[in-house]
């Protein structure tokens, strides 16, 4: 029942009604019985497609509409309700049945795993209820939601592609009539053909070509915008990007997946789906023409009649051609996948050189870097050479294939022509139909290289999405960071164990409290898990068990030893992670002065690579300016002042405590001079099993 209420359900009922009507229509010559029977099949397919992917549904629905239009138009023509000129333009009866066959093919392939992998990536866009993206003007009013715009555009694109097939068919008949007029030396008929058939077809062909490009580009742009946004939003969401390396999913170079794989995937999906289907329609149409032309084909130099000989020939051609292409082209899938990966590795290494150029220059690391780049580039060359040779083999085959098929139909049909059994027009039509069939097959065969890259892309995007799902699941796993607290707003850990990704336990805390309002200093040997404890409190460390409670609704800021400084203006760097409009210029300047960076107070608009321009100590003070601006309830300083001299450090701590009276400070540090800025000390003590245990310890008396 639910299936009947959906859009496809309504369409199915309508189709069944039309089929019934055709069946009951008294003694019409057209459409024949099989068209009405096909209508019932179409209704069944439409119902069965209700559970189909959102993307494939569009195709089935368009074919359903195609069937209705064609069957009704044929009925109207048979009833004499259409002008003769329009009726003459209608495609033959089998076209309506053809659309049912295509719908059945779409339904059948939807169960095939490679198609399911593709629709898994494609569907979220077409099912999306988001408001139309304002970024792109093209087709913005073509639907109420972004998903609906996408669906409408795909449907439009399918119609446009079918219109193109209809024009190609028109040309085929034009060739027959034009060559017949030449053979009959009928000048009047020839000029009539040129003016009334060729010119309108040519004009339509150009117009449809332009419109097709516009629709396709609009769809690709809108889809890419939506998918790119949704991928990076999800990737950046809730520490997912940080946890992906902890999953067992191989998701290297996410930047490449978001920037280039998405783009390629969308271009390939639209090209392969709409064009592949229109090529299939073209293939079927011309096969029917070939059948009509060679219905009583007499094998040259014999008397044997083989009905539809040219069709059998072309099918044999297709089967052998596709099979050989598959054998020759298969290794390209793996090679293309690897190429994407090695290219991304090389690009990433270059980007790292740019980021760490100062360290590399100081260490005189250029030779080591060059040799690493050489190795990485070698992998690109090596793999590409493999691709070149594989493509050459493929081209040797596809070119021979194309050449053979231009002469083939002429050789086969010429004896009939010379025996005056067929006209010049029919000979030309045969050659043209054969070359169109060949063109469609060529599309499938040439698509092989695209298919190989497509598969690689689908795998890369699929594994990226799986990695994100696993990383998101990791956030909820482990000890489960509970929000809310009943111990006067303190941070507490109970029965907590923190482990490494390999399961090795590094920290054990039976009971630990970081009281609200009292500055705590966390000390201990290097590698004892101090930073990991901070990560766990911040909720990004997924391995371990037990419980950490953080006060509900309170803000926290963690400052690491090496602060992250985003690209852009100094204002943006100080305001980070808040947006620049959160604070006035005076507030930002004041924070810079408080963090002992007065010399930068008037350079807020300067855009620079600040992470390389500022000294290590200046970067740390910039991060402290952030804390002064953000006024968090909790401030975690992970050796965040280690690059400062003791005097500046002391000044900064004084400022922090004065300007952030409501903030609880928790610091990690090794220097004894930090003691006097804190109220209590927690020390990481070695415990059994190589683990460390945070224990409250006495604050050493200040040095004299
Ligand atoms: N992502 C990770 N994968 C595997 N091991 C990790 C990871 N992060 C940290 N570790 C390991 O966990 C242990 C504790 O690291 P952590 O950074 O917490 O120590 P720390 O006490 O802060 O050290 P330091 O005082 O040197 O900064 C180290 O042995 C480190 O190698």
Automatic annotation (TrEMBL):
Residues 155-453 form the ABC transmembrane type-1 domain. Residues 685-694 have a biased composition (Basic and acidic residues). Keywords: ATP-binding, Membrane, Nucleotide-binding, Transmembrane, Transmembrane helix, Transport. GO terms for molecular function: ATP binding. It is found in: Cell membrane. Residues 685-704 are annotated as: Disordered. It is a multi-pass membrane protein. Residues 491-704 form the ABC transporter domain. The keyword Lyase does not apply. Belongs to the ABC transporter superfamily. This is ABC transporter ATP-binding protein/permease. It comes from Methylorubrum zatmanii.
